[in-house]
Amino acid sequence: MTGYFSDIPKIQYEGPESDNEFAFRHYNPDEVVMGKRMEDHLRFAVAYWHSFAWPGGDPFGGQTLERPWFGETMEHARAKADAAFDLFEILGAPFFCFHDLDVRPEGESFAKSCANLDAIVDIFGEKMEATGMKLLWGTANMFTHRRWMSGAATNPDPDVFAYAGATLKSCLDATHKLGGANYVMWGGREGYETLLNTDLTREAEQAGRMLLSVVDYKHKIGFDGPILIEPKPQEPSKHQYDYDVATVYGFLKRFGLENEVKVNIEQGHAILAGHSFEHELALAASLGIFGSIDMNRNDYQSGWDTDQFPNNVPEMALAFYEVLKVGGYTTGGTNFDAKIRRQSLDPEDLVLGHVGGMDACARGLKAAAAMLEDGGLESMRDARYAGWEGPEAQKMLSGEYGLEEMAHYVETTGLDPQPKSGRQERLENWVNKFV
């Protein structure tokens, strides 16, 4: 231990009856769920940005958190890495995630920023080898610095576009060197504030060209993991181009990348887009682009992305139900894109936020597995669509029956279909048996 978390013990599983707040009550890494260890199902990751780089500000107030590693020198960056790996060890989380700007100071030139990142990557490599920690994904921060105020790939200035490409290369190289399982792209300022100064067609072409370049470079360096796009509808931009899963899929189809790129879906972003988390997960699975999860929650009374640690087990059960239905994660995982409240000042608060989130995810996973193994929901859903297995229905679905044939079928059989109950209340009651 380097000091900041030195009074906090390593978190162990003690079971639901434990009164020890520094223990897992539900997350038992070795518990087998549907034939797989819980740790291997959930693949937890700690987010470097919220846990170690966020100063506690919000739109109406500045820094509230004080951390010994806050500062813009390499000494601060090394101290931050020490504290981060201490937290990873305390939690027993197998993965972490980072942006380049989270882990290294901005240099006076692009070359110096890259050198700073390379130095930290070497430190990460040593710590990962010593601890067994792994990188779930890396990414580039192309939204904080003022150069990105009008976007990165979609910027009207081609020099900014080039700078974005160079930044992506450096971050892909870093992720590849550390054996990252995925690489994420979140276009925080890829969008617009007003259509009065925006060329939608041009900006879409720029975004497509940049993503094609990223995929080309991924193959050139032999990076095996998928590229993941993280949808979000707005904030900080008025309208962001990666609005939701459906919008991202349409973009991927437009540029022929639907078999190359998947999505990293965040619970809070799904809510901002007017969807449920499980909707976005189910749609991604249906389209074949499900990749990974950013797990958090929003405050339903606030209009912004509050990034709180998750604690709503019924919501999480429905989300993990969709994850398990698609076969679980392959390269993805459950990244805590979540931060403590700006009034939560103590080291213990950061640890306990993760402990609570991990326990809630474990409860949600076990409820989802119980639902799936019971089979009742799938059975009732299959029964609702059973009519489509009939010969006439199959002819309509295959295209053998067009409108004329359908009309003939209705007229000759005297068909007069009557509504059938959707049984929503029964289904909701059934789900509540498990959560």
UniProtKB/TrEMBL annotation:
<feature type="binding site">
    <location>
        <position position="307"/>
    </location>
    <ligand>
        <name>Mg(2+) 2</name>
    </ligand>
</feature>
<feature type="binding site">
    <location>
        <position position="266"/>
    </location>
    <ligand>
        <name>Mg(2+) 2</name>
    </ligand>
</feature>
<keyword id="KW-0963">Cytoplasm</keyword>
<feature type="binding site">
    <location>
        <position position="269"/>
    </location>
    <ligand>
        <name>Mg(2+) 2</name>
    </ligand>
</feature>
<dbReference type="GO" id="GO:0009045">
    <property type="term" value="F:xylose isomerase activity"/>
</dbReference>
<protein>
    <recommendedName>
        <fullName>Xylose isomerase</fullName>
        <ecNumber>5.3.1.5</ecNumber>
    </recommendedName>
</protein>
<keyword id="KW-0119">Carbohydrate metabolism</keyword>
<comment type="subunit">
    <text>Homotetramer.</text>
</comment>
<dbReference type="InterPro" id="IPR001998">
    <property type="entry name" value="Xylose_isomerase"/>
</dbReference>
<keyword id="KW-0413">Isomerase</keyword>
<feature type="binding site">
    <location>
        <position position="230"/>
    </location>
    <ligand>
        <name>Mg(2+) 1</name>
    </ligand>
</feature>
<feature type="binding site">
    <location>
        <position position="294"/>
    </location>
    <ligand>
        <name>Mg(2+) 1</name>
    </ligand>
</feature>
<keyword id="KW-0479">Metal-binding</keyword>
<comment type="similarity">
    <text>Belongs to the xylose isomerase family.</text>
</comment>
<keyword id="KW-0859">Xylose metabolism</keyword>
<dbReference type="InterPro" id="IPR013452">
    <property type="entry name" value="Xylose_isom_bac"/>
</dbReference>
<keyword id="KW-0460">Magnesium</keyword>
<dbReference type="GO" id="GO:0042732">
    <property type="term" value="P:D-xylose metabolic process"/>
</dbReference>
<feature type="binding site">
    <location>
        <position position="337"/>
    </location>
    <ligand>
        <name>Mg(2+) 1</name>
    </ligand>
</feature>
<dbReference type="InterPro" id="IPR036237">
    <property type="entry name" value="Xyl_isomerase-like_sf"/>
</dbReference>
<feature type="active site">
    <location>
        <position position="99"/>
    </location>
</feature>
<feature type="active site">
    <location>
        <position position="102"/>
    </location>
</feature>
<feature type="binding site">
    <location>
        <position position="305"/>
    </location>
    <ligand>
        <name>Mg(2+) 2</name>
    </ligand>
</feature>
<dbReference type="GO" id="GO:0000287">
    <property type="term" value="F:magnesium ion binding"/>
</dbReference>
<feature type="binding site">
    <location>
        <position position="266"/>
    </location>
    <ligand>
        <name>Mg(2+) 1</name>
    </ligand>
</feature>
<dbReference type="GO" id="GO:0005737">
    <property type="term" value="C:cytoplasm"/>
</dbReference>
